[in-house]
Amino acid sequence: MRPNGPTCLVDALRSLRISHTSIARPSIIPNTSIVSRKVQCPQNVRFFSATASMAGNWLEPNLNRKDKMMKGRPRVATGGSTKGTTVVWGDYGIRMIDHHRRISAQQLKVAEDTIKQRLRGQKYRLFKRVCCNVGVFISGNEVRMGKGKGSFDHWAARVAVNQIVLELRGMIHEQVVRDAFRLAGNKLPGQWEFVKKGAPPVVGITKLDGITLEDLKRPRRKVPGESLAPVPPASDSETQRTPLDHP
Fold first, then answer.
1. Is the Cβ–Cβ distance between 161 and 84 less than 8 Å?
2. What share of the chain is helix, strand, coil (3-state, %, to 5)?
3. pTM value > 0.85
4. Which domains does the chain have, with CATH numbers?
């Protein structure tokens, strides 16, 4: 005879046993040996944070667009500064060589996208050395003079001559990086050159290749006397020559 459903359920419940073994709970009082132990933490280490940065990105800063800004001029180092003219974080870089100018964020974004498209599938990291923190305000066409500065148009960055704009580091061949930076330089205004890590810095328009900064700061350069050739005396024919205006 087939057993009934409720009877099988009752037999299954009777077979279950509840263990009466006591479970040891963790002690609330801390152990002195554990408290006295000090955790060795590395110094000068920036811990990971999931909080978004409030400084904005390199193409659009966290600034108020309604605040009017002056046009200004790019910083040109004339006192012997070499800041921003060498590759710091990456292995290769692209540097402006012709003239300082103001580059818009749209042009820099196109150059960045060009490099990413050329190096698609490669392992690398791109560093940006400039920040578009200058607001450009433009008035409309056929507007009379006066009536205010104008409305906000776009963000831009002041780039000085011989300044590094982009740097790259990764497991990529040098010729591939050269080609990527060549395509990016064609999208940017001005003339650009390919720079490797360890290249000599630039002061103004002078590369410190073979000369030092102290040599440039000297008002006069000492020339050894042995290298100077004596000036020959004037000949008698030149002293007794008659002027051309005389007959």
1. no
2. 25, 20, 60
3. no
4. 92-141+148-199 (3.90.1170.10)
